[in-house]
Amino acid sequence: MRRVLELGSMVVAPAPAWAHAGHVHWWDIAATWTFDPLVILPLAISGLLYVLGAARLWRRAGPGRGVRPWQAFSFALGWLLLAGALVSPLHWLGERLFTAHMIEHEILMTLAAPLIVLARPGGPALWALPSGWRRALGGLGRWRPLAGLWRVLVRPSVATCLHAVALWAWHGPGLYQAALADLRLHWLQHVSFLATALLFWHALIFGPARRRGYGAAVLYLLATALHSSLLGILLALAPHQVFPLQTANAPAWGLAPLEDQQLAGLIMGVPVGLVYALAALALAGAWMSQAGAPEAKSPSLRSLAAGPLTPPDRALPTWDPTSCRDQSPPPAP
């Protein structure tokens, strides 16, 4: 804990405190902020699509309809966390400290991903597109091979296994160090972490696990907490450096290489496991609250595009992938 606090004090220290150790200032945008187009463009496009789509829905159906305010807040917070992990100096620091790199990865998988999933951004993103493009995507939604593949991917067991494979494979010494040496491979690592995390959280919150009353989701969350904590413990207790390239710069930050690895392992093992455990408790509470209630249908690709359910007398504008046409009510008075 003392080492973590010391590291935190170095991160927020003013420029003079950094100069004697040969560091640039944390807020030196040119040196410490990331402007890789492969990172900036997807972030900008995703944020723009959500904002434009939500604005169009609210303009047609009324403020707060189609996209609820809490969903907009959830997406904004998840998007900001994503940008903070990949663009802010945290990413720059993660290239020099294993501890910071681990924090970056866990923000992607355990904070940003579930917040974005809760926002259900598919509907707003589709409504940001021209109607012709929505019809084309509707045709894809009706294509049986794609629909069948989606049904397989959102099974909780499949999504959990894919996320676990991504986590453990990229933490193999050979692949992890290769990603450190190759920027494109590093980008692919982040994409796989985020994509499988989005799929994992979607499968548990909105997939078949919801239809079964979230009981399976609780089990898969606990399983993920266990295996990710096990990986963190293995890193924390390893008697030697597992990723020498990652921990080589730790002495410049007041940490021995092995201490840097141990801190990174503790972050994966303790706070991350706590996030999964809290999510499991939340879903267990939802599961118990559903006892005796009618069984809820699992959202499909159509419901993801349509957004939250609303009373029949004030239907929202929706996108129906099976009919490939817009269904829009008159604008709200």
Separation of the first and last Cα atoms:
57 Å
Major sheet description: 2 strands, antiparallel
Overall mean pLDDT: 81
Quaternary class:
single chain
Strand content: under 5%
Pattern of helices and strands: HHHHHHHHHHHHHHHHHHHEE
Into how many domains do the coordinates divide? 1
Q: Which blocks of ≥5 consecutive residues have pLDDT under 50? A: 8-22, 296-333
Could you walk me through the main structural features you see in this protein, from its secondary elements to its overall organization?
The chain is mostly helical. The protein has one domain (31-306). The protein is 70% helix and 2% strand. The chain has 19 helices and two strands. It has helices spanning 2-11, 15-19, 29-32, 37-61, 69-86, 89-94, 98-119, 122-127, 131-142, 144-153, 156-170, 173-181, 183-205, 208-211, 215-237, 244-247, 257-269, 271-289, 301-306, and strands spanning 318-320, 325-327. The protein has a two-stranded antiparallel sheet. Strand 1 (318-320) and strand 2 (325-327) form a beta hairpin. Helix 4 (37-61) runs antiparallel to helix 5 and helix 11 packs antiparallel against helix 13. The radius of gyration is 22 Å and the shape is globular. Mean pLDDT is 81; it is low at 8-22 and 296-333.
